[in-house]
Amino acid sequence: MHALREVIATYLVEIQKLSSMILEMIDEGLVLEQGYFKNASEVQLLSSNFYPPCADPSLTLGLSPHFDTSLISLVYQGGSTVLQFIKDGQWINVGAIPNAFVVNIGNQLEIIRNKKLKSVQHRIVTSTHATRLSIATFVNPSLDCIVEPAKVLVNELQPLLYIGSQYKDYVQRTNAFGAYTTAILNAMR
Hints:
- This protein is an alpha+beta fold.
- The chain has helices at residues 2-29, 107-112, 167-174, 176-188; strands at residues 43-51, 63-66, 72-76, 83-87, 90-93, 101-105, 122-124, 132-140, 146-147, 165-166.
- The protein has a 4-stranded antiparallel beta sheet.
- The two termini are 25 Å apart.
- Mean pLDDT is 83; it is low at 178-182.
């Protein structure tokens, strides 16, 4: 058990470094001041999921269609291709690249960017022959963080599209999963 704890602790340190790097690149790409997300991205949740093969995948869905309430999420999906995104009304499988992460834009980043970047709806389907083990890391604002469009991105040509709110209030309003997420975040305080 001690060895498993060490592996998970090392993984958490490394995924924190990776998510910080990604958010720094987003800062730069969105023309935000350097470190914009530094104080807003202190909380991470880690979720590991196992989906066994299903003889009749039409009878079940691995994870219902949803949007992530985070800033970003990093998903390691192994060799599985059961993660799907919706595009133009069609569900499309995300290919699996060995030793790579899928990076999802979450609702909070959509709000900060004033809808110039969009959170994407996604789901997990089951497979008749393959198991899926995934590790998802959700990079979230702190519970008390006010999430709102970045002031530098709002002007006459780009009017304010979202009203700021505390992250914890947003999560509780958005979906049933939000109450669960908030309970976990509160327990981490």
